[in-house]
Amino acid sequence: MTTLAGPAATLIYDDWYPALRSDLLQGRTVVKALLLGIPMVLGRRDDGRIFAMRDSCPHRGIPLSCGWFDGKALTCKYHGWAFEPVSGQCLEIPSLTSKDTLDPHKIYAGAFPCEERDGYAWVYVPQPGAGRIRVGEATLPPIPEAPKFGARFKSAHLTADLPCNVDHGIIGLMDPAHGPFVHQAWWWRKRASIHEKEKHFEPIAQGFRMSAHAPSGNSAPYKLLGVYGEPITTTIDFVLPNRRYETIRCGAKWFSSLTTVTPVTASTCRIDVYAAWNVFYAVPFVTAIAKFFGRRFVGQDQLTMIQQAEGLRYDPALMLIDDADRPAKWYFALKQARLDAAPGAEVKNPLNGPVTLRWRS
User: Fold this and answer.
1) How far apart (Å, rounded) are the C-alpha atoms in residues 191 and 189?
2) Is the Cβ–Cβ distance between 196 and 356 less than 8 Å?
3) How confident is the model at residue 120 (pLDDT cuts 50, 70, 90)?
4) Mean pLDDT across the stretch 140-163?
5) Strand 111-112 vs strand 50-54: parallel, antiparallel, or unpaired?
6) CATH, range 15-125
7) What is the bridge-based pairing of β-strands 15-21 and 31-35?
8) Neighbours of 181 (CB within 10 A)
9) What is the pLDDT of residues 275-299, one digit of tens each?
10) pLDDT > 70 in the chain, percent
């Protein structure tokens, strides 16, 4: 048994996080976001490139989101300083005269690498004090993306704010034992359907994998795939800092999802789900139906985390048990190993090889 502390989590930097849905970045409108406690302003240039800047003018600190964006430059409303938004380079300081020697182009506002994947604006957040990252010159890790197994598929997005630190959000995400209680419903599973399960895990880079297996027989959505008459297999990966990948294969049919738990502040987080599939591709209204039940499912997790946050206000002593809580223990060990590792160094994995876990759910 392991005790679990309740204070705000230590944050992992030097990685990509989803800031917001990229379809919010339309025209010359800029959108504010908070990511790892950093206020940001995001937008889309006239050439389609999205950007993310620290929402603070380096001159007097007024939010740049209060200013004007013309599709090429973001201008501060206080003194008219203008910045190229992808690099953050200052283009103009209107108050300078012909007698001034200051070169505006040597001044930079905070700017972050920002790319569009799976309908999200992904922002790379470096360690505080790391200095300016030159877009296109720095070697950054790959941008996360849900796997796809064909060109024709449907997709959907879901999001929910959680009033807890990212650690509680993540171990809730990977928790295998809460399903029959939090998600008990006619369309998912019943509490009476609990039975013993055995799953095999293996180490992967900065994470671990629940190896390919037949899905739980007490989950109604999986039973629907039986109409295809093919064997069904599920693979689930967790990868630092916050990503859960799930892939379900049934012959040529497939479903995949990428779920992230992103720290908004040190004590709050947000869950984002992107799902893609080609199952029941020709069935009318399948996307609307999937979104309806998906929102219900994520909403159940959200309500539980809200209720848990009420109890956590009083800083109770908590615990992790085996085997159902072993993935949570692996997460904490992985996270600490990454925090302790030198930049670019390999992260020591707590799994030395394949492991079998058993629990009832």
Assistant:
1) 7
2) no
3) very high
4) 94
5) antiparallel
6) 2.102.10.10
7) unpaired
8) 13
9) 999 887 666 666 776 777 778 888 8
10) 89
Task: Tell me the domain boundaries of the chain.
Answer: 15-125, 154-360
Sheet of 68-69, strand order: 68-69, 74-75, 82-83, 90-92
* Four-point Cα dihedral 350, 183, 226, 153, nearest 10: -80
Tokens 């509490």 locate to 191
Tokens matching residue 52: 């993310």
Distances (CA, A) of 355 to 26, 245, 262, 279: 47, 19, 28, 31
What are the C-alpha distances in Å from 210 to residues 80, 174, 230, 234, 325?
Answer: 54, 11, 21, 8, 14
Percent of the chain that is helix, strand, coil (3-state, to 5): 20, 35, 45
Rounded distance, CA 318 to CA 331, Å?
16
Handedness of CA 338, 348, 201, 249 (dihedral sign): positive
Please name which of 338, 305, 304 lies closest in space to residue 11, comparing C-alpha atoms. 338
| Pairing state between β 120-125 and 114-117 | antiparallel
Q: Rounded to the nearest 5°, which phi and psi values hold at 300?
A: -65, -40
Question: pLDDT tens digit string along 152-210?
Answer: 999 999 999 999 999 999 999 888 888 778 777 655 556 667 888 899 999 999 999 99
Please tell me the CATH code under which domain 154-360 is placed.
Answer: 3.90.380.10
Give the CA diameter of the chain.
Answer: 81
Tell whether omega for the bond before 323 is within 30 degrees of 0, i.e. cis: yes
